[in-house]
Amino acid sequence: MNIPNFLTILRILAIPLFIILIAYEHYPLALILFIGAAISDALDGFLARTFKQNTTLGAYLDPIADKLLLTSSFVVFSIMKLIPAWLSILVISRDIIILLGILVLLVNFFPVEIHPTAISKCTTVFQLFSIGITLLFHVMHKAYIPLQVVFWTTGIFTVISGIDYVSKGLKIINEREQ
Fold it and tell me: At what angle are helices 118-140 and 145-177 packed, to 10 degrees?
């Protein structure tokens, strides 16, 4: 067990506490935990690259940790009406479609190398920003009008990156059939 993988596991273990804090409206503590999770995400990647501690386990755990945090956050935030339900539906649907696409490729013995694209990374940043800024606005008791711009931008990036992944999957299938 190296330090980057340990940080990723800590991030996964922090998710239930984060959701509990949100459910009980302890927004300041939830924001601190969310910022800590974001820092640990950046730190584990930096440490893995800098000290050449990339592992197969880390390659799987890191995106799983991100997806668990984002999915659980969007579901709970939507249920609590902190963010619009349509945004949660887009975020979760995109991830399900990507996972199903990967499963279809694997079951049919297509080579699958998962590398996040630039649009996918931007999407993750906007999704994390949506959660973080919503928490910050609740902590500061500010108006929510500017959040609509963030939500729509996140939704647009989510749809575009979903289309990008689907087109890449179809390209893999089409290349084999030719």
Answer: 160
